[in-house]
Amino acid sequence: MASRAMASPSVTAMLSLFILVPLARGSLVDWRKLRPVPVHASNAELRSFFLDGPAGKLEALLNAGVPGATHAALVCHPHPRYGGTMHNKVVFHAMKALRSFGSPVLRFNFRGAGHSQGQHDEGRGEMDDVRAALDWLEREFHLPIVFAGFSFGASVGLRACCPDARVVALVSLGTPVVDQGRTYRYRFLESCAKPKLFVSGTHDGFGPPGVLEEIVARAAEPKLLVRVEGDHYFAGHLGDMRQAIEQWVRATLGIVSS
């Protein structure tokens, strides 16, 4: 599946920055009433290394967390055939959002991307790459894990992380639902009862209006869809995307920024 976007269920509200969907039936989160999460310059150690994957070594980066971190995080990148790597801007900003809570955040290159070994496997083997990254995080930190993925990384990561008990919350950025004339329905989300945040641009061609909303509407509770002004890549609106993640993590997991 190529790397791109998605939308929101029946109850939506137009706000100055965001279009929202209910987090739970009968409730609507008004982001204007939540106190902004302060963004701190990160002086955390950045570790570059290779982790063991099912198809060979996977190139990885770890932004270290703070002592007493309550969660670890994993962020997955967009489609490698379209130039996607762990250095993608959306991936970087998602990492910064999760790192603001003091969490150690792992990024890695899927098989065949960057300096990772192996060959691209159209999303099948990449699910095993995600599981290998989860294994590494569990061994290193023994903390509940928050998953975030952009586009292809969201599609692959959601499939791998929904049934994995180590993952407690899911963030899907630019969820790709339409690509090259094909529509992806994400039926597995109907039984995925973990907290889920979907963030997509209002002009995302890979998550056109109505299609993503329908998918999110069918997904199990709790879930929230946020439409941010912009395209699939959140060009010019990466800060809004990042703020949506931070506000949701705080409201959903009850943790505060470090």
Describe the structure.
By secondary structure, this protein is an alpha/beta fold. The chain has a single domain (1-26, 43-130, 143-166, 208-258), classed as Alpha/Beta hydrolase fold, catalytic domain (Rossmann fold). It is built from 5 helices and 12 strands. It has helices spanning 89-99, 124-141, 152-161, 211-218, 238-253, and strands spanning 13-14, 18-20, 46-53, 56-63, 72-76, 105-108, 145-150, 167-173, 178-179, 182-183, 196-201, 223-228. The strands form 2 sheets. The chain has a 10-stranded mixed sheet, with helices on both faces. A two-stranded antiparallel sheet has the order 9-10. Helix 3 (152-161) links the parallel strand 7 and strand 8. It starts with 12 loop residues before the first strand and ends in a 5-residue tail after the last helix. The relative contact order is 0.22.
Radius of gyration: 17 Å
**What name does the CATH topology carry?**
Rossmann fold
What is the overall number of helices? 5
Biggest sheet descriptor: 10 strands, mixed
Estimate percent helicity.
10-25%
Overall 3D shape: globular
Major sheet: arrangement of strands: 1-2-12-11-8-7-5-6-4-3
Structural class by helix and strand composition: alpha/beta
CATH class: Alpha Beta
Q: CATH H-level name... which superfamily?
A: Alpha/Beta hydrolase fold, catalytic domain
SSE series = EEEEEHEHEHEEEEHEH
Task: Please outline the helices and strands.
Elements: E1 13-14, E2 18-20, E3 46-53, E4 56-63, E5 72-76, H1 89-99, E6 105-108, H2 124-141, E7 145-150, H3 152-161, E8 167-173, E9 178-179, E10 182-183, E11 196-201, H4 211-218, E12 223-228, H5 238-253
Parallel strand pairs: 5-6, 5-7, 7-8, 8-11, 11-12
Antiparallel strand pairs: 1-2, 2-12, 3-4, 4-6, 9-10
